[in-house]
Design brief:
This protein is α+β, with helices and mostly antiparallel strands. 19% of the residues lie in helices and 35% in strands. The chain has a six-stranded mixed β-sheet with strand order 11-12-13-10-4-14. The protein has a six-stranded antiparallel barrel with strand order 15-18-17-16-19-20. It has a five-stranded antiparallel β-sheet with strand order 6-7-8-5-9. It starts with 9 loop residues before the first strand and ends in a 13-residue tail after the last strand.
């Protein structure tokens, strides 16, 4: 049965629908969110891997950045190449601090807004107020940020997501990974991007909050669609080797340490004109002292965030930042930071788990191959 949320916790426009579906609600990033539905996390995880899972991600922050050249302005805060994107293309990037630490990770889509260039931003829920203040303050006088408070966001993920969404929006078939356009979805006008946080093919659909319940009800009528909560969202992204902000990355980690060097564009490296460039370029040249890696524990017991990582001789070399059981691989999986000298796949490790030591090895990421639809 659904549990009543704290009155101080915010609700997404889909809250009542979650309750009607008998979701177990929990506080997350200041919102009452479904952690699972009656079928359970493993069933929801499997449904996303084999059919289509539907996620409420309306707690995320959405905004539009406008200006004479919003892409050039925004590049002052990130290491990615946004100016090089065509209209309708999107990119994963990172808000950085002056020492190269990661303020947040986010998705940026180049759009046209009433014929003028603009950027559509989606940031993490727990960081959105700080992110938006940082962006607006840093770019004051050259770009204007509109926070889309009344906007909802849902994600349809899985190998059957295209077939499902095409019943309501046939043009969705034309999109490839990291592409987005405005389109009508079942009569609701929205911005649809081919993207997500599961490693599977899928879409994120931004629509007015007033329209999202009817949209979601229509999607859930399809026999291949299952509602999915935060529990399976976490196990899916962990199997896909995707970072969770505040756990695998934060202001104390750099993109190079986090194995996100690909997010530092070649042109930006050459210009060295992004926050923390000296630190990040130094790590690119000399290598960081530590690296984020995949971890494959032996046995069936998951290892959790905060568990100490040791090398084969018992010397402490790092810490687990995410861990759990991977239903697709039918084994525990984890990620964490280890000394760079111990980061090669196959390196033997020991994980401290409830007073005992669990043997593990460094594993190549992702644990489950990504299934994105890329341009042919």
């Amino acid at each position: 049965m659904a549990t009543a949320p704290d009155p101080d916790v915010r609700r997404t426009p889909l809250y009542d629908l979650h309750v009607s579906l008998d979701a177990r609600m929990v506080p997350f990033a200041g919102y009452a969110m479904p952690v699972q539905y009656p079928d359970g996390i493993i069933a929801e995880h499997g449904a996303t891997r084999t059919a289509a899972g539907l996620f409420d991600v309306s707690h995320m922050g959405q905004a539009i950045l406008r200006g004479d050249d919003p892409a050039a302005s925004f590049e002052k805060l990130i290491p990615g190449n946004i100016a090089g994107l065509d209209i309708g293309r999107m990119r994963y990037t990172l808000l950085l601090n002056d020492t190269g630490g990661i303020r947040d990770d986010l998705m940026v889509t180049r759009i046209e807004d009433n014929g003028a260039p603009a950027l559509f931003l989606v940031v993490n829920a727990a960081c959105k107020e700080a992110d938006f203040e940082h962006i607006a303050t840093s770019l004051a006088g050259e770009a204007e940020l509109e926070i889309m408070e009344e906007r909802a966001l849902v994600a349809l993920q899985g190998p059957k997501s295209e077939a499902v969404l095409a019943d309501l929006a046939p043009d969705c078939r034309d999109l490839v990974f990291l592409q987005g356009v405005d389109m009508s979805v079942g009569g609701v006008d929205g911005l649809v991007t081919r993207s997500g946080y599961t490693g599977e093919d899928g879409y994120e659909i931004s629509v007015p909050g007033a329209d999202v319940v009817s949209l979601v009800q229509g999607l859930l009528e399809h026999p291949d669609v299952s509602p999915v909560g935060l529990g399976a969202r976490d196990s899916l992204r962990l199997e896909a080797g995707l970072c969770l902000y505040g756990h695998d990355i934060d202001t104390t980690t750099t993109p190079i340490e986090a194995d996100l060097s690909w997010a530092v564009a070649k042109a930006r490296r050459e210009a060295a004109d992004f926050p923390g460039a000296e630190t990040i370029l130094g790590q690119l040249a000399d290598g960081p002292a530590r690296r984020r890696v995949g971890i494959q524990p032996e046995g069936r017991a998951p290892v959790r965030e905060g568990a100490v990582i040791q090398d084969a001789e018992g010397v402490e070399i790092g810490v687990v930042t995410s861990g759990g059981f991977g239903p697709t691989v039918e084994a525990p999986v984890a990620m964490g930071y280890v000394a760079a000298t111990a980061a090669a796949p196959g390196t033997a490790l020991n994980i401290e788990l409830r007073g005992r030591s669990v043997a593990a090895t460094v594993a190549a990421l992702p644990f489950v191959p990504h299934n994105y639809k890329r341009a042919s």
